[in-house]
Amino acid sequence: MTTITAAPAATPLARPRAPARPSRPAAWATLARRRISLSAHTPREILAPLATPLLFALVIAPALAKIIQATGRGGVDYSTFVIVGTVGLLIPLTCTFAGIGVIVDRATGARRELLTAPIPRALIVLGNMAVAIGVSLLQVGALMAAGWLRGSHFHATASGIGWFIGAVLAFTVFMYGVAEILANKIPTQEEYVGLTPVVAILPWFIAGSLFPITALPAWLAWAARALPTTHVLALLRYGVLDHTGAGLHDIWGITSTTTDAALSLLVLASWATLITAAAIRVFTRSAVN
Amino acid sequence: MSIRLRAASNDARPAVEVHRLRKSYPGGVEAVRGIDFQVAPGEVFGLLGPNGAGKSTTIGMLTTTIKPTSGSARLAGFDVARHPIAARSVSSVVFQESVLDKALTGRRNLDLHARLWGIPRSAAASKIAELAGAFGLSEVIGRTVDSYSGGQRRRLEIARALVSEPRVLFLDEPTVGLDTRIRYELLDLLSGLRGSTGLTTVLTTHYLDEAERLCDRIAVMHQGTIVALDRPAVLLARLGAELVELRVDKDPDGTLAAMRARGLAAGDAFAVGSTLTIPLGNHSARDTITAIQGLGIDTEAMTTRKPTLDDVYLQLTGNRLAA
User: How many CB pairs under 8 A join A and B?
Assistant: First the structure.
């Protein structure tokens, strides 16, 4: 005989009053502070991803310039051309490294605790993203400062800086979204790290970082125009280096440079929005069975 | 141990209500097959069963990390599917595995929980100090968790779950993987929580002694269903005051049938492997043993003893719980 205590009949009761819970900005700030404590609380963690881009910008680019005696578009010196182009390497590296934190959270960290917190789960992704943006801005600033100290000449105007920052922000959001998606889809840290060169470095080579995309075979140049990295590099150079917008013209071929810049920023913003939405969806779906 | 928790709600509704809750995974695996139960405010409720019985899936659905296939569940009146954030705001979970930020200090782990559950900063600080003291963590609370022992981590996780003063506390196999000494220390600690005002606890375990010691009521789960639900004493009473256990050389099922045919065993007797368990009911142990010996059964061993929850479980499921 099986003994099962009969459940009392359900009594209709008014919906209970929800207890206090944190505001969304407060919860988001808490999650961002947690991520800083875990991944970005020492200078080493912030500066280590700078090593490769700095090497490219301050050693390899001047060496290449010396050998091939190249000049960037619009009379810009080649080293400066590459320094700005190196931002397109720095941000993907920073964001893909941030993705490792997502895997660590899942494998040995407190992700399950966060999932039971009375907050929208999208905030967990957005809290991590906020730190990736902050770290990227710091690193880009450090890279540009290193270039300036080495003798690079930037032509910064208020609007130019606006295009520059807008492009950095949109590209960082896009790249962090890509990293979050991969980190939630890929089961092991080893496999994820193995994919980093493909995601972070490969697009950089064909996106106009070291040479204009018009130097590529025609079919590859068309492929490069579809890459967010190509748009961000053209916008960055337009913002602080080459007000003729040669890189933007290579993409769009429109006579109005401002229109070219707006279109590229729109492309970046659209990618950033789309990938962020996808990242949140992938995270919540992977977190809840 | 004395911990102040939120006063019990005046709300008359059950703290946990589960109605025809079911979870099927792709591939047709039915982890939970339409279960019903209710837990009263302040009650300690145990879900007992072996690995794969559906206990953790049930906890996962109640804590909104697993989506139910059908049915409903409410925590303090909040439907976990329709109002998941409200349901999470009245509950906390201690997971089977360690789920801590090990690079952070114990205090930071507790503080993060307080922040995310909306506890004001000043209240959180005093609560953390109180819990650290009550759980014997005051000396290590400022150290990073990776320097903690297994027992300290588990105590920290239970303390963390209490920072937000939940109405419902879920403990998913809280003593699994701990050595015996730490396990008993933790059981003392969990026993101490029983008196905490207003705290409803849902505990999963496959340790019978743990369930018997901690729980007001126990639901025995087997293959995704609840096969019995009652107070431990009532479940034990099903088998009477005493039973005979004997191991036979061959054909235990045939031997049991023969004993039933002669009125030596009733319907509540059962066989698991080569062991037969015969509740005595109104018979005396001496008479029963003499009668069994008179049947000429080739037995390896025969003993009389009091029934345990293990026997109740075996009778219900025919399987031995994992040790």
Answer: 127
Exposed, middle or buried, A59 (CB in 10 Å: 0-12/13-18/19+)? exposed
C-beta separation of A94 from A199 below 8 A: no
Nearest residue to B178 (alpha-carbon basis) of B238, B100, B106, B98: B98
| Helices A189-196 and A158-185, packing angle to 10 deg | 140
**Over chain B (323 residues), what is each successive 10-residue block's mean pLDDT?**
53 88 92 96 91 91 95 95 94 93 96 95 92 92 94 92 93 83 81 76 87 91 93 87 86 85 83 87 82 79 86 75 44
Hunting for tokens 């097959």 — which residue is that?
B33
Cα B206 to Cα B32, B172, B211, B218: the distances in Å are 17, 10, 8, 11
- Residues of CATH 3.40.50.300 domain(s) within chain B? 16-235
> Which class does domain B16-235 fall in?
alpha beta
For strand B243-248 and strand B299-305, is the pairing parallel, antiparallel, or unpaired? antiparallel
Would you call B91 an interface residue with chain A, using a CB distance cutoff of 8 Å? yes
Number of residues in chain A? 289
CA-CA distance, A248 to A225, in Å (whole number)?
10
Look at A2 and B227 and tell me if their CB atoms are within 8 Å.
Answer: yes
Contacts of B65 in chain A (CB under 8 A): 112, 115-116, 287-289
d(CA B316, CA B208): 14
Task: Kindly report which listed range (A184-188, A214-218, B235-239) carries the lowest average pLDDT score.
Answer: B235-239
Would you say A5 and B35 are in contact if contact means Cβ atoms under 8 Å apart? no
pLDDT at A78 over 80: yes
Among chain A residues, CA nearest to B219: A4
Place of tokens 């450090």: A142
Residues of chain A in contact with residue B90, where contact means CB-CB under 8 angstroms, are: 19
User: Do B280 and B253 meet the contact criterion of CB atoms below 8 Å apart?
Assistant: no
The answer to whether the Cα torsion of B159, B163, B166, B170 is positive or negative is negative
Residue B20 at interface with chain A, using a CB cutoff of 8 Å: no
Instruction: Tell which residue, B113, B126, B61, B123, has the closest CA to residue B87.
Output: B61
Here the tokens at position B255 are 């031997």
| Residue A73 exposure: Cα atoms within 13 Å on the Cβ side | 23
H or E segment and range at residue B169: strand B168-172
Please give the Cα distance from A61 to A144 (Å, whole number).
14
Looking up tokens 């991944």 gives A39
Q: What is the pLDDT of residue A1?
A: 42
- The answer to whether B58 touches B21, Cβ cutoff 8 Å, is yes
- Determine contact, residues B221/B204, Cβ cutoff 8 Å: no
A188 Cα distance to chain centroid: 21
Non-local (6+) Cβ contacts of A112 within 8 A are B65, B93, B95, B99
**What architecture is the B240-306 domain classified under in CATH?**
2-Layer Sandwich (3.30)
Q: Which residues contact A85 (CB under 8 A, 6 or more apart)?
A: A204, A208, A209, A210, A233, A236, A237
Q: Which residue has the tokens 């106009």?
A: A208
Which residue, A119, A286, A288, A287, is CA-closest to B67? A288
Find the helix packing angle between A228-240 and A257-287, rounded to 10°.
130
